[in-house]
Structures are given as structure tokens and as C-alpha cells.
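Example complex used in Figure S2.
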Amino acid sequence: MLMTLGVMIGIASLTVIVAIGDGIKIKVLDRITSLGFGPESFSVMAGAGRLFFARSQNTTSMTLEDAEDLLALPTVRLVVPRQRKSIQLINKKEFTSTRVYGVTPDWQLARGWEMKDGEFLSETDLDRSKRVIVLGATPAKKLFKDKDPVGKMVRVQNNFYEVIGLLEEKGLTESGYDPDDRALIPLTTSMTRLTHQTYLHSIKVVALKASQVPETMEAVRQILRQNHNLSVLAEDDFRFITPEGIMQRVTESEQALNRMLILVSTVSLLVGGIVIMNILLVSIRERVREIGIRRCFGARRSDITIQFLFESILVSLLGGIMGVALGLGVSFGLERLNIIPTHITMEPFILSFVFCSLIGLIFGIHPARKAAFLSPEESIRSQ
Amino acid sequence: MNLLEMNSICKSYRNIGIETKVLQNVTLHIKEGDYVSIIGPSGAGKSTLMAIMGCLAQPTSGEYILDGEEVGKLNDRKLSRVRNEKIGFVFQAFHLLPGVTALENVMLPIVYAKNSQGNAKERARALLAKVGLEHRLHHTPGQLSGGEQQRVTIARSLINDPRIILADEPTGNLDSKNGIQTMQTFDNLVKEGKTIILITHDPAVAQHAGRIISILDGQIASDRNLSYEEQTRPL
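Predicted assembly (618 residues):
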């Protein structure tokens, strides 16, 4: 019973760990796809540094001229220069905080995002720095409830913007990221009235074909370095965000996570195995007589070894089955109670089957050999 | 030709550096169909002699030939085969597997037999019937009386049709009625031609055999054949 328990806990933690690992992986992948990348697009962010959380210096170098130069590249289909600011939108007594992007009309093409109502930003809006705004579904609901927001006014800081369009609702992603929580205004308006800056936060580049992304990136790098007067030795003052780049980082963190998980489960399985070994050794002491009887009637050492190995494998497999059941229960509970996302796959079943057999085998060998090498004469006499 | 031949067998145990000689120069020959008792006080070396006879232990020195095979030179695998095919054990403490039915206990030696006969179950059933337990096939040892348990062990010792039956104090744990019944079973087996070696400290039990070998301090003190009148005959 105790041996089954040891293996059970090991396998349960393994199952939970695999489920959590998969759950987190799915969540991260989900977030990445929700960033809105197609395979032929990538972004250039102003400022060097790491992908997430990094405070980057010199973020003032990227300008509209850069964007125009990039558009001139032969492999580039679209370029969307962007500014971004999180700020409050106000409609009378209702207010909500959202991400406001200053973009060009090409944004809609680059994202392929349909309108639910009204129009998207036009070239005229951009040229005249009009105070117009396109709302995502989330701020629209918060500010206008069920009413149609198109034609109404929204206040941002001290300026009133006319709502000219409403984006199609995409809905929450599994991970809880809300792509609808955004609003879009003309880039020129953003520069003069929102951020009071002329530099860009990022440029989204859409290549003609997905296969042209690497060469396009290299060309973009050359142009930006030239425009920013960077010496040969200087590092880039911008960074790329590509679907591949993100995937690579995800894979790296996933691998690190997996390594940790494997370590934890190995330790618990090792403990389970040692428990099995000790209990088998104790049980041999109790069963010396049985071993003696079997030896008297013709059991060879190998017969006894096989018998004990078989028993230890059976016991650990039993523990494995119970462990998988417990682990599935815990994983399901974690998911249900919204503690940690989990995802249940076939892997833990196969893993635990293999692991348990191995544990039974490895930790059963010593006790089994010990049982087999007892002297039949002495074991038959023991009481 | 002798079925069992022991020539100057010695056995000593080494315990914390002290050597204890249990058997010294034991020489004895037993023919097929013999009914032999080995008697002696406790500590005389009877059980060690039986362990060597039963291939459960190897002698320290000397030659032991069983059914033409020099047992002292066999490895574990071959010794196990000899135990399985040529020897049937009957123990004082029965040594049945607990929690296993009488039928399965009787079939235990077949599990380890090289060429197991297909009708093993039938044979086990027949043997249990022979010892008068056909109504107890599916009882576990805990549900059987001492006498019944001992009869199960006799059936078990016969299942592989061994050359010798080694009985170590077979009546030691039984009351006199069951003891007599057990001895009668042995007597009948001898009449069928089986070779039986009885190890006991009880002279009355030993009297059933046709030959009594007495052991004292690890040596054979006497070895005599009983006359027809001396022997306890089966009723």
C-alpha cells in the first residue's frame, strides 16, 4: 500500500505538471497569435533591448521618414507606422481606459480587421489631422452600452473626437487577452494632440510573401541603421518582433519550464522508487518462508527474481494508474477553479506507464536478487 | 544400484569465525523402495542431513550421488530441477502457501516443472482424492485442520512423481490420531514402491520403517534393519 502511494504521488505530480505545462504553453501561444501577426508580417519596435518588459533607451529615433523609406523597398507591400498610448476615454459620466493607437489607414489592410459599423480612418482624416476615432468593441460597450456609438463624441484628455467606426468584435482569447480593448485615431492627430511627439513607437511591415520576410528584415535593418546614423560598431536602436522570434522565445521558456518539471517529477519518482525498494526488502523478510517453499519444490533463482520483479512492476503500475487519476483530478480542479490553466493530453498516461515499469524494474532488482539468493535451507526453517 | 549414496559427507557452518561441525563423515546408501527412518535427538544433525539429501544445501565435503547424479557439482539451476523432479518434501510445519487453495498448493511443483503435463489439474485432484481430501479441494490451509494440511503436503510431494520422499518430522505437529493416519499414508506409499526417508525423534514413528539410522553428534551411531516383527505394520 505504501509503495503504491509513493509512486502514486510521483505520477500524480508528473501528470499535473505536464497538464500545467501544456496549459501555459497554450496560453502563451494564444497570446502570441492574438498579437495579430500573419506569416508575412513583422514589427519594428523603436528602441533596442529585450522583447518584453524592457525599458529601452533612445526610443525617439524612429520617424515617419523611416516608414516611407521602408515602403520603398521592393518586397514590402504595406507599412503601418504606429504610436501608442494607454489613456482614458470619456463619454459624459462613463469612462474607460484603453490602448489608443495612432495609425495610418493601411492598418486595417495589414490587420485584415473588418468594420462592424461606420468607416475606418481615411487618408483625408490623416492629412487633416481630424479628431476622429474608431472604437474596438470593449471601449464601445463600456462607453455607450448597447447604443450605436457611431456619430457620437468621445473625450480624450481635453479633446473631443467623433466616433466614425466600430471594429468587428473578436472576443476574448482563451487566455483572457482582449483584442477588442483598443481605439484607433489618425497618426497625425496622435502626434499633435495625444502624444505631442513626432517619433514612432513601432512600424508594422507586411512583405509581399512570407518567404521574403528574412530578406526584407535585413533590408529594413540596413535602411534604419543608415537613417539613424549608426556606426558599424553601434548596436541597433530598434528591434524586430516576428512570429518566429516570439515562437523561439516561447520554445526557450517552454524548454526551461519543462526541464524544471522533469526535475521535480524525477525526484518524486525517485523517492517513490526508493520507498518501493525498501518495502519490498521488508516484504521479503516476511515472505522468506514462501520463498523457501517455492525453492524446495523446484523454483530456480531466476523464477524467484522474476516473481519479485513482476510484483514490484505491478505495484508501481498500480500506483501509476492511481497517480494518473489523482493528477487528472487535480489538473481538472486547477482549471475549474481558475488557478492555473491546464491542458490534459495522452502524454502523462504513456509517460507514467513507461516510468512505472522502469521504476518497478530498477528498484525491484535489488530486492528480487536478494530474495533469490536466500539459502533455501535457512529460509524454510525461518519462522 | 543405490538410489541415494552419501560418501563421507561433512557439513560445517562458520558463524562469527567459529566453525561448527554439524555432520562428520556420514556415509549411507539407500536403495530404491527402501523405507528408512533417521532418528536422533535434536541438534544431532538430522535436519542438516535432510537439507543435504533434499539438495537444499551443499555438503562442505564428501560425495553425494542421487539417482546417478553427483549433486555436489550441480549449479543452482540444475539443483532446482533435481528438487523439482526427484524429491518430494513433507515438512513438520506443513509449509503450505497461505491463502492458496489445497488444489493450487498441490500444483505448486508443476509450476516449476520443465515439461508440465497438460492434465496437471486432474493429477492434483486425483492425488487429493487419494489422501482423502476430495471434498477439500478449494479450501485454503487456514480452513483445514492440521491433519488435512499434512495430507495436502503429501499430495504436493507426490505430484511430480519423485524418486524419494523426504519427510521431516511429519507427525510433529499432529495429534496421535492424525499422526497415525499420516503414517499409514506413508506405509501405503511404500507398498506402491516409493522410497521414503523419515526424519524423526520419535521411536514409535521410526518403527514404521524397515531400517533405522540413528544419528548422534553429527555421526551415524547405528544403522540396522528391523525384523518383520519389530516393524509397525500398516493396519
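Residues 12 and 18 of chain B are 10 Å apart (CA to CA). Residues 2-225 of chain B form a domain with the Rossmann fold fold (CATH 3.40.50.300).
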